[in-house]
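Our platform keeps sequence and structure together, in a single record for each protein. Such a record has a labelled line for the sequence and another for the backbone structure tokens. The tokens are whole numbers drawn from a learned vocabulary of local backbone shapes. The remainder of this section carries one protein's record, kept here as part of the documentation:
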Amino acid sequence: MARRTLTTAEAADRLGVKPATLYAYVSRGLLRRERTPSGSRFDAADVERLALGGRRRARADDPLSFISELTSIEGDGHRYRGLDARALSRARRFEEVAGWLWEATWPDAPADKAPDEAPHAWEPLPGPLGTAAAACRALDPRTTPAERWRVAVAAAATADPLRHDRTPAAVAATARSLLALLVEVLPVAAVRPAAGTVAPSLVARLWARLSPLPAIPAQVAVLDAALVLMADHEVAASTLAVRAAASFGADPYAAVLAGMAAASGPRHAASSLHVRPVLARAAAQGPAVALGDVLGRGAPHHGFGQALYPGGDPRATELLGRLRALPVDLAAVDGLLQLAASRRMPPPNCDFALAALAQATLMVPGASEAIFVLARTAGWVAHALEEYEQRTPFRLRAAYVGPRETGDSPT
């Protein structure tokens, strides 16, 4: 993907300076300039860093920001490279959206292509798959998908001799192979294939490993939508870990593993695992009993509220709406939501919606976390690609508040 550049007028306007000042920045090494037949062009990332740096000098409390062309979070939702994620979840497959995040391109497709036909045949590399599968065979059968994946990624990296190739095309190819590998190392959950199932896209293969229900197109489409909606969400904690690792040259496997580690806690990808038992209890004992358990644990409540969306998480709204179109029983889900709203609790978030999807379609334990992690792997790779190009200078300082030396040093 080519670097984005600005004209002299555009760069000067963004920085609020005269053109002569731009050339002074170039001479000081603060801006990259490219001479073209039509005039000078300036690296957009350099310009944006200078603009943000000026704000930080003016406001010492301004948080660290990142230069990114990937995801913007606005009042009513989030967008991938300027395109609304909810609209993409209805119109594009997860594999296509992953490619959009990585390479800013859409696959060529013939006009008569069947809507359920996979846009790409994503397959894992044999060497990494064999090594990862062997490592996973040693795990306890009760190991959750996300736990299994942390082992699989570490093992797969050792069997890929080209993992240090950080050119954009190579990283995208590694990502396709890695995502397919993550699916293949999971045990198959489906009891039987269904007549007229979708083509074996990455998402259809994932369905067969998460749910015992037949992979009918309507159900797989909802899983596909969930993956699109969760693919990226700007610089969440796990993405910060990925960017820090990639900025220092970590290979794509290691960068993804950093994201998986950061996402594994109960306040991130694993949050949905605390919601599913609540839904099961609502179905068995009623919404009041289930919500009473939630309230008894104190705030914040897993599955409710999202700081970036005070009016409600649009990802949850979209996914729950898609789920309601399926022939599944959502009485417990809707009863719990109605009771929570009557108690003036925050609206449901994406963790609630992922747990509802897993519960309604009888998915295996840990499935909701797995959907989050697999989806976000696409976003993590996109952020790693930006860091391989930009190399954000991560070196934060600690505000030390511990004891100072007051006497003789110990001997």
Notes: The beta strands are 5-7, 33-36, 39-43, 71-74, 77-80, 83-84. Residues 16 and 61 are 22 Å apart (CA to CA).
